[in-house]
Amino acid sequence: MLTFSHLILGLFQALLLLAAAPLVSGLSRMVRAKLHTRHGPGLLQDYRDIAKLLTRQDLTPPNSGFAFRSMPAVMLTTVLVIATGIPMLTRFTPVAPIGDLITVIYLFALARFFFSLSGIDSGSSFSGIGGSRELTMGVLVEPVMLLSLFVAALLAGSTNLGAIGSAIADGHVRSATATVIAALSFAYAIYIELGKLPYDMAEAEQELQEGPLTEYSGPSLALIKWAMALKQTVVVAWFVGVFLPFGSAPEMTVFGLLFGLVAFAIKLVLIFAAVGVVENSVARVRFRLTPQHSWVGVGAASLAFVFYLVGL
Amino acid sequence: MNGFLIVNGLSGLLIVSSLLVTLAGNPANSARFYALQSFILVMLFVALAGATGSGELYLWSFTALLTKVILVPAIMYRAFRRLSDPAIGTGAVMPTALSIVGAAVALILCFVVASKVTLPAADAIKPALAVSLALFFIGLACIVAQRNILKQVFGYCLMENGSHLTLALLAPNAPELVEIGIATDAIFAVVVMAALGSRIFDTLHTLDARQLTSLKG
Question: Are residues B36 and B158 in contact, defined by beta-carbon separation less than 8 angstroms?
């Protein structure tokens, strides 16, 4: 049921995340600096970076076309659209048509598709290889994501993210073991999607893994950096909304929303702090070995599916 | 009815812990995970005793706590801790992901078999019965698809846990004597196998089952 207040709530939480995203990425940078025992940038450094880039000149390679120019806007808006549909402050999805797991997965795939397409479209061979690396990563992560979410959807009896979250929060899922395994494998997929070590490094735009960024400059680069920070936040919010919905508001009341906001902020900070610790205590894994790791995720998700089938 | 739900839920954890035992990096870690699995098994016995009202099962869970959670893992941990063969790696023949999928497939097949069982006692606990069968086959697979002879001992232990669970599920009122028979059997088997493993390592300096092709000493 989509009412006007739901729409407003969806827009509010999307804009809230958009405003908070550089803060979250600033937090990971701060955690990394602390773990390296160096001074490091301040918490607001990413706001300053984006503001500086927005005032610079936007240069495009002569051979680039439509996909290259539209990618920053497409990526940012796609992630914003996803953010309106994910249950964050509330148990239910604010904009129900978007808060469906299949829609969300495809919207993420759309953002990824444009990201790697822009790499190929820029005309630089280095960017092109970076783009294909990004797609390979997607092929490896998405099966884990799909399978674990499908298990959760089967257990809850709905593909709506809010319905899955409320079923888990109320303990209405049939199998606790299957839910926990599905949650763990989904968390693993989310971790790869975050673009952190040992699989990726979202900030390393000089390297192959963020190759599509090579040719961007000025406001476009600012938008992409902002979109990537937003994507990390939204992806974690997705996990929180589905598998850790505790503390969010079951009804739409002012007090409930405020409490939900506080609970959501605490969960977000805790998860990013934990991710920061993991990220800085591992070495980078060779890309050739990534499939072996991600297949373990597929195995765990299929085990969760079997647990659901057997009724454990 | 609720008690049987707990039994089924705990049996799911048995599958997870058996995979941890099988996939652990070295035998000492496997011993820790095996203690964890036995502890889950003991809790399952207690839950089952509460659900069926069987007094014997409480006694079973107590002896299982002594033998399987404390004694057998301690023996294996002490014996296996000092034996290491870097050349063998984890010793697994199959990739990790394939082992997990294999366990899932085994569980499905066992569930198909268990759903054919028409005993009135087995109605509420069919998932747990499927797990007990699957546990047996995971143990068997651990013996077959593992080159490290110490990890193969854990395969035997998993099979033994599986058959123990089957017995508890289908005959919760069996006398304590049966339990003692199973428990002592397992302890002596593990002691003998641990001694054999140590002797093999001392003589041949390898833990790889494929290297054991000649008689020595």
Answer: no
CB pairs under 8 A between A and B: 65
Asked if A31 contacts A277 with a C-beta cutoff of 8 angstroms, the reply is: yes
Quote the tokens at residue B3: 């008690």
- SS3 (DSSP) at A4: helix
Does residue A297 contact residue A189 with C-beta atoms inside 8 Å? yes
pTM of the entire predicted model: 0.88
- Name residues whose C-beta falls within 8 Å of residue A66's C-beta, 6 or more positions apart in sequence: A121
| Interior/surface letters B145-160, b for 16+ CB within 10 angstroms, e for the rest | bbbbbbbbbbbbbbbb
Structure tokens at A204: 């390393």
Region of A131 please: left (phi>0), alpha (psi -120 to 50) or beta: alpha
A304, burial (CB in 10 Å: exposed 0-12, middle 13-18, buried 19+): buried
Nearest CA in chain B to A178: B12
Kindly list the residues from chain B whose CB atom is less than 8 angstroms away from the CB atom of residue A303: 15-16, 19, 100-101, 103-104, 107
Chain centroid, CA A280 distance in Å: 19
* Whole-number Å distance between alpha carbons of B33 and A300: 18
**Residue A310: φ, ψ to 5°:** -75, -25
In A, what residues contact B, Cβ < 8 A? 175-178, 181, 292, 295-296, 298-300, 302-303, 305-307, 309-312
- Its ipTM equals 0.83
d(CA A311, CA B108): 11
**pLDDT tens, position by position, for chain B (217 residues)?**
577 888 888 888 899 999 999 888 788 888 999 999 999 999 998 888 888 887 788 888 888 888 888 888 898 888 888 887 777 777 778 888 888 999 999 999 998 988 888 877 777 788 888 999 999 999 999 999 888 888 888 999 999 889 888 888 888 777 778 777 777 888 888 899 989 888 888 888 888 888 888 776 5
Closest among A69, A66, A48 to A58, alpha carbons compared:
A69
User: Which chain B residues have a beta carbon less than 8 Å from that of A312?
Assistant: 8-9, 11-12, 15, 127-128, 131
- Phi and psi at A3, nearest 5°, equal -105, 175
Identify the bridge partners of residue B148 per DSSP, sorted by sequence position.
B208
Phi-psi region of A286 (alpha: psi -120 to 50; beta: other; left: phi over 0): beta
**What is the number of domains present in chain A?**
1
Least Cα distance to A53 among A191, A228, A180, A276 occurs for A228
